[in-house]
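Hey, resending since the last one bounced:
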Amino acid sequence: MKKILFLFSVVVLLSITVVLVPVRAQDDMCKNPSTLQLEDINRCLDQLNKAKQDSENATKPLEDQVAGIKQRVANIEYDMGIKQKNIEDGYKNLEKQTEILNATIKDFYIKSYYNSPLLLLLASNTASEFTQVLGYQRANADRDKAIITNIALTIQDLENKKKELQSEEQSLVVVKSKLDKIVADAKAYQATLSSQISQLSARQQQILAQRLASLNIPLYANTSGGCSSDVGKNPGFGGAIAFFTYGVPNRVGLNQYGALGRSKAGQKYEDILRAYYNFDSLEKRDATINVDGNGSYSLDDYVKRIYEVPNEWGDQGGMDALRAQAIAARSYALAYTNNGANSICTTQQCQVFQPNPKGGNWDQAVNDTAGLVMVQGGQPIKAWFSSTHGGYMFSSGDIGWSGTSWTKNGQDANGSINNWSDLKNNAYDKDSPWFYCDWGSRGDYNNTAWLKPEEVADIINVILLMQKDSGVRDHIYQTDKSNPAGTDTWDANRVRQELKNRGGNPFSSVSDISVSADFGSGKTTNVHVSGDAGSVDINGSDFKNYFNLRAPANIQIVGPLYNVEKE
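The structure tokens again:
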């Protein structure tokens, strides 16, 4: 019982500690993320991350104590279980002893009456015989008294233990309830901060996506440009490093080059569609589609004017890819316009439309699937698609959009993906020109995205500095463009000095860099860096974000899965 009372006191103390965990004050502007500009978002993210880190640092000792107490509670529960079994066994044994007790008491009183000293004296022939019989009877009486006393004490002990155990069980229920509340309160606070950070990060990514516009990222397959691999291109300096992204945004829904790969592998259009979407059935539908600035068309006439995928795919074993795209285009148009009630735009932000029918294989694919749309719950699904997913498909919720029941996530490959080689060889969209690219370039270095070792070291130092002091964020943007926060941007030397001032160990050069990835989900998880300052490991998402803030020109990492190449 003393153990339970001690634990109860500790839990009460811990609950008081949770209440006293400091909450970092936030600017009022951070409470309305939809109105924030990039520099404001960065400041709010700093505050939220700092508050979350403060909470985690403050509650880490608490969590360790709670974990220790929970283990002690578990041990006490185990001991109580043993006590309970011992008491139950004691009562079972007592049933037999009770029979002995009743017989012994009865026998004791009988013997006490019939074996009185006077009767024994009259019945004995000699004094010696009287003495022996009397001694024998006293011994029997002492034994019976001992049996009666021991059984009575056993009963009393079992009753006391039973009451104590019941009291401990009641106290333990209270202790466990308070422990659960302590952990729940601490986690709920941190979860709230994480939720706020996630919300702001989506807004931040939206603004960063606007910066990617200069990269001419192709969101549909029937286009040119975008990127080309810099592997084998000489940038004019040694030790070059570049970061190559798999696929292009947004990786949701139909992977157009993936559909081509599946079609070449013999898959039919419905099988292709079911690989990328969840839907109940294919049904024939029609509606009048109002196209911005281009009048109105029947559903199939509208789809015949969609220029998302190349016509020549039909001559390369890709007719079922064209048929799948035609059905996806119809489904998207109906869902986007609410079955024709609204209009639809003509760019890749909706679907690429031109006034004249495309003809050829595309016209045939539309006719082959006339009127068919994907339906879930009686409604056409909003069938998003993009040119190249990089071996994976994501659900809408995976990329920060609203979650949907018809989008899927998983590997998009003919076989499993367990490493970089599997991804290169098995991905259905491996033949896309945008499957594996380093994005951006600089005219000074053979129009490539190769970086010098000292430039990569600078990006690493920026990340290390941010880990030391997130309040310097306004100073760590790329040095070859104006500062978006309206202040001074720190160059590589200043960043190194500021990192030293805060107890950090800056890099001057990077000798080796590698990444680790979760090949199940398709995300880079860790960047390992070695150089003159030793070795560090950086979260893959953090590295990507700060790389995109600091890297020169328009060099960017454009997706969650990326690798590093060295020239």
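The chain has three domains: 2-211, 223-245+437-566, 253-410.

Sorry for the duplicate.
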